[in-house]
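Quiz preparation item.
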């Protein structure tokens, strides 16, 4: 009985020890599980935070691309292919091709003037000669033969075991507006520089042009009291009056320029008979013709009434005829007009003078421009003609053959 009791007690103690051991192991496992879950929770929270950060960075990255209107791409330097990843340029005619397109396809779209330099720059970064790339070039649009301006930046993203570029990443953007602005600014600068040069030449010319008749007036006036013969006196008086007229013409040109630029002179419309006015203007220039030159008129209609600013009309015709008389040493000068067509009237002055080279035919209407610096004149007459013609709703132009003569025309609305 005693042995049976002791065996039972020993069995009970063993069970208790086993229970305590198992319980302790379970408790320790539970505690370890709690610590493990806590650590996993922290790692999960960290990963979620990183994911949120990446998502935020992607959103910001995409926002920057959209705001800058950029496209992103990468080049496989070993396979020499290009793949566009994103395109936010907002145009459907930009260069964007399927993934893994050969670089030769890109080269074929570059403008001939930029192609050699563009290929050299791409080859340099692909072969590892440089780590960065920045080029501006013209690329042909998708559906026409026109070109757009593209500015691209790129850098080496990864290298192979030999240290040579493996992947190149870059961005492109269209810069048509910027290039147009640069071109406009360049043209404005060139025009300003040319205007400054012409104004300097104008001051020099004006100094000479004003001084020449003024010296003649002063010189002839000073000797006039000492002249005894009536014929010689009349000749001196005629020379003084001729130089007075030259001086007055120069001053009138300068005044007309000032009035035109100020914009204060308004049109004064009146109706007049065209044939009579043209004939009277032609008659005024007959005494000024060089020997061997005759002046005539050729009117399409027997009579024609028009309504415009008579003063400006006369000013334009005077300058056109003065120009013809100045440059015609032999042959003829004809003043006329064609029958009105499409509510427009064209009046012209045709001469057999020295003519104008094609490259100068538009420039002769620029202010202060002179084809021949040795011919007297300030270079303002034809410029005044164009400005006044525009103010009357018309225009002026020239058709000329060098050595054969010119036809200056003045077109008005009727």
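Solution:
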């Amino acid at each position: 009985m005693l042995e049976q009791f002791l065996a039972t007690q020993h069995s009970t103690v063993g069970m208790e020890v086993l229970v305590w051991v198992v319980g302790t192991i379970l408790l320790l496992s539970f505690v370890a599980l709690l610590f493990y879950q806590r650590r996993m929770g922290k790692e999960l929270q960290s990963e979620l935070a990183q994911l949120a950060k990446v998502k935020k960075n992607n959103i910001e990255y995409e926002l920057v691309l959209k705001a800058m209107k950029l496209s992103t791409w990468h080049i496989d330097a070993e396979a020499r292919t290009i793949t566009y990843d994103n395109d936010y340029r907002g145009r459907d005619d930009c260069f964007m091709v399927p993934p893994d397109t050969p670089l030769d396809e890109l080269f074929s779209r570059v403008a001939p003037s930029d192609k050699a330099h563009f290929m050299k720059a791409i080859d340099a970064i692909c072969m590892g000669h440089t780590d960065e790339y920045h080029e501006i070039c013209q690329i042909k649009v998708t559906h026409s033969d026109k070109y757009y301006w593209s500015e691209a930046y790129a850098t080496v993203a990864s290298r192979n075991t030999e240290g040579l570029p493996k992947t190149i990443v870059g961005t492109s953007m269209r810069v048509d507006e910027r290039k147009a602005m640069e071109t406009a600014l360049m043209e404005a600068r060139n025009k300003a520089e040319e205007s400054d040069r012409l104004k300097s030449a104008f001051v020099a010319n004006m100094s000479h042009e004003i001084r020449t008749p003024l010296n003649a007036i002063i010189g002839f006036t000073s000797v006039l009291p000492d002249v005894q013969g009536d014929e010689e006196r009349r000749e001196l008086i005629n020379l003084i009056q001729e130089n007075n007229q030259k001086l007055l013409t120069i001053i009138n040109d300068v005044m007309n320029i000032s009035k035109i630029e100020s914009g204060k002179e308004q049109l004064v419309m009146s109706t007049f008979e065209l044939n009579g006015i043209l004939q009277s203007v032609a008659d005024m220039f007959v005494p000024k013709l060089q020997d061997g030159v005759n002046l005539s008129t050729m009117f399409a209609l027997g009579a024609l009434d028009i309504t415009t600013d008579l003063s400006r009309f006369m000013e334009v015709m005077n300058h056109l005829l003065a120009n013809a008389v100045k440059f015609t040493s032999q042959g003829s000068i004809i003043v006329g007009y064609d029958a009105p067509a499409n509510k427009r009237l064209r009046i012209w002055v045709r001469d057999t003078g020295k003519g104008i080279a094609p490259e100068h035919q538009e420039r002769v209407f620029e202010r202060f421009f002179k084809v021949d610096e040795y011919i007297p004149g300030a270079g303002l007459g034809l410029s005044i003609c164009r400005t006044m013609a525009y103010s009357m709703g018309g225009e002026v132009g020239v058709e000329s053959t060098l050595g054969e003569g010119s036809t200056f025309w003045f077109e008005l609305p009727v």
